[in-house]
Amino acid sequence: MANSQPPSQGFDFPYLPALLLFLFEFSELVLTSPRIRLIEASICRSHYLAHDPSVINPDGSIDESLCKLDAIQARLAHIRGWQVFFEAIPVLLLAIPWGALADRVGRKRVLAINYIGYLIHISWILVVCHPGSTMAVEWVWVSALAFVLGGGPRTANVLILALVNDTSPAKERSERFYYTYSAYLVTELIAMPAASFLMERSILLPFALALLTLGACFPVLAAVPGVVLKQEEHSHITRGDEDGDEAAAGLLDDVGEERATTIPKHTATTLTSTFRYLRDEFSKAIYDTNILLVLLGHFICPVRQELVFQILIPYTSKRFSLPISTSGLMLSVVATVNLLIYLFVLTSLTRFLRRSLPSSHVDTLTASYSSLLLAFGCFAIGLAATFPLLLVSTVVFAAGFGIRLGLLSLLTSLVDPAKIGRVYTLVTVVEGFGEMISAPVLQGLWAWGLEKGGIWRGVPWIAGAVAYAAGWWWIGKVRVKGEWREDE
Question: If DSSP codes are grouped into helix, strand and coil, which group holds residue 288?
């Protein structure tokens, strides 16, 4: 960070932020399948209490095979679709103000608040859906309010990356970012098998592990060195700029730049300044067709995440009569393919293409053909009649997950380098809106497909195929007339 003193306090272990990301992501990802099963079981109990209470065990549990009725699965889709929608609201409204506050009071303090919010989030879901609970399952929606504290998991992940920047010497920064991101990929690989193993023994064990892992984040966070701002820099922060243009830019700007700390104290954490900032930036973007096309690409990026984390598990479980614990292992397939794509395929392919093509053209090709892979994968999954075909289709689908990195890299060729931080902030908001819209729409299509039966159960994937086929077409239309940054 510009004009900052060396890190103070904490242990001198360079990869503590990577460990912190691993622990937090593990506490989140290990609950992907168990959360679905817990909500499903709650819906299932209420269904059989009204129709056949004899199938409910004395401890409130119920055999999972009895929970695959279309009516139960349709209600599950409804609950989970709106759950994602409600969770996105506090993130969209408060992520930027919390980020600006983190620039003023320190990342560690805001991260600690964020973790407390996530702890409350998990605990509330357990209270509502515990086998002994009599609360209506719709009460799980209230758990979204916990993300008011700290801005939710997405904000936490960005703050951890900011910690990497704060605590890293310039010559080691890239290496540490690599290890931090690798921690995320490793977490994806091991969290799902761990969840599957624990679910076979008790649905509550993954939640206990998640809470323990989340609790371990606090001592690790305390051990991370803090960065102390010099007095003149702190004065500059609190003095600020009267127009408030930078109010929303602080967290996601290039942290090493001095402008990343010029957050007006009186406007940085207000919703009014956030909305004004977003309005101004979006109004500028719509006048540039190329930037608008890239932002449309970011708008459909969350569709792939919603299909994987919200649809793939119940779809596999219902269509092939598999327990959710087994269906959740499909996420490990996606994670493995992602790891191979990021570490080997994309790096080698882009390096080869840049020998003869401009970087912006390579980024356009990467993003557009990743979208095409997603389209083919979605279409194949929606029509897969056997489990082996589903596996192959999922591999094709996962191979397209490089779309977001391609779009982000392409965006840097389209904007002034001084405005990259603000544009990336706009990307976060656009993707947030994409998540809010895609989650209930895809879950609604899944519920409709369950009602129709047969091949119509694949309709969410067909919708994804249409979205990404369109993305392939419009991303391919992006043209960079002149790059702000010269190719090295």
Answer: coil
Task: Tell me which residue has tokens 């919703």.
Answer: 271
Q: What pLDDT was estimated at residue 14? A: 64
Q: Is 486 helix (H, G, I), strand (E, B) or coil?
A: coil
Q: Counting beta carbons within 10 angstroms of the beta carbon of residue 448, is it exposed (0 to 12), middle (13 to 18) or buried (19 or more)?
A: middle
Tell me the mean pLDDT in the region 375-390: 96
- With tokens 């086998």, the residue in question is 131
Q: Coil, strand or helix: which one is 212?
A: helix
Q: Higher pLDDT residue, 335 or 487?
A: 335
Q: Is the separation of the CB atoms in 428 and 421 below 8 Å?
A: no
Say which residues have a Cβ less than 8 Å from residue 44's Cβ, sequence separation at least 6: 62, 66, 67, 72
State pLDDT tens for residues 137-164.
999 999 999 999 988 887 888 788 777 7
Mention every residue, 6+ apart, whose C-beta is less than 8 A from residue 29.
187, 188, 191, 192, 195, 331
Q: pTM to 2 decimals?
A: 0.77
d(CA 26, CA 215): 12
